[in-house]
Amino acid sequence: LKRLQELPYVRIVGPKDLSDRGAVISFVIDDVHPHDVSSIL
Fold first, then answer.
1. Is the dihedral of CA 9, 31, 1, 17 positive or negative?
2. What does the pLDDT look like over 1-41, one tens digit per residue?
């Protein structure tokens, strides 16, 4: 999570504190369609 927060083009969805999160981290990459991100992952 810390590394994702350092990237200027990535936005984390949900709480930033790990104690308030589950095992899944939702994120958005600016100017990239979600379908493209999922295809790459």
1. positive
2. 889 899 999 999 999 888 888 888 999 999 999 999 999 99
* CA–CA distance, 14 with 24 (Å, rounded to integer): 10
User: Looking at this protein, which amino acid is placed at residue 12?
Assistant: I
Distances (CA, A) of 6 to 17, 24, 35, 40: 15, 18, 23, 20
Over residues 16-26, the pLDDT tens digits come to 888 888 888 99
Q: In terms of C-beta density within 10 A (0-12 exposed, 13-18 middle, 19 or more buried), how is residue 35 classed?
A: exposed
pTM score: 0.73
